[in-house]
Design goal:
alpha/beta, 5 helices, elongated
Length: 242
């Protein structure tokens, strides 16, 4: 996965938002008035907060919030706390959370994975597993996951992905018929799908908003059709023939 693409997407949207707010603010079209510096720092620290959450950086998240509090000290009536009290409090919070949650402050996510006695099975920042069944559901949120689908009678795949990265390997899957439906609900992230060269792709029912659908390679024909439905917002959907 190319994480820098998500970073570029966030910062690109940040600069666009800053430009829009700046113009509207100068034209007095907003019901509230913000200084140019406030707009710029809000966008910067806001994006830093989102990026820190995606990368599971507790330090970045806490200090992004701290700097946002400093920026909005007057409206929040906390001028007396600026800047050192807020920064010291942020540092103490960071130290305290890292001591309490020694492994990870962020919650752990489980994705229908069956754990046996020989497997630790905790899915935190990233996870890999093999799944089977006719109807597959893959959930990913604030994490990076890899799913190897080995179904021998695959009919439908549902992908729920947000703020992270998902790799889905269908090259070992066998279709139940001439069509396989993949329902995608993705936002602010990257989804990569790997399919056999014999499969065909029908993306006419897929809504891509402020994002990109990229198909790498060409079908040799003779296989089923992967029908893409749902929507992909502010992210990238890449399909690879293997």
């Amino acid at each position: 996965m190319r994480k820098h693409k998500i970073r570029e997407l966030f910062w690109g949207l940040a600069f666009v938002a800053a430009a829009v707010f700046l113009v509207l603010n100068q034209l007095h079209l907003l019901t509230f008035h913000l200084g140019i510096g406030t707009i710029i720092w809000t966008i910067v620290f806001g994006v830093c907060l989102i990026e820190s959450a995606v990368n599971k950086s507790l330090f970045g998240a806490i200090f992004s919030i701290a700097f946002l509090l400093i920026v909005y000290a007057k409206p929040l009536h906390i001028v007396k706390l600026v800047p050192w009290t807020i920064l010291i409090a942020a540092l103490l919070l960071y130290i305290g959370f890292t001591m309490i949650f020694k492994k990870s402050f962020w919650p752990k996510f489980y994705f229908g994975y069956k754990k046996d006695d020989s497997d630790q099975g905790d899915f935190t920042e990233s996870s890999t597993s093999t799944i089977e069944g006719e109807d597959i559901v893959i959930n990913q949120h604030l994490s990076s996951v890899s799913r190897y689908v080995h179904s021998q009678n695959l009919r439908r795949v549902t992908v729920n992905s947000s703020l992270g990265e998902a790799e889905i390997y269908l090259d070992q899957a066998k279709p139940a018929g001439a069509f396989i439906t993949m329902d995608i609900n993705a936002s602010l992230g990257e989804v990569e799908i790997y399919i056999p060269k014999s499969w065909k792709i029908d993306s006419r029912r897929l809504d891509v908003t402020l994002g990109e659908l990229e198909i790498n390679g060409e079908s040799t024909g003779g296989g089923p059709t992967l029908v893409l439905t749902g929507q992909s917002r502010l992210g990238e959907l890449e399909i690879y023939y293997v």
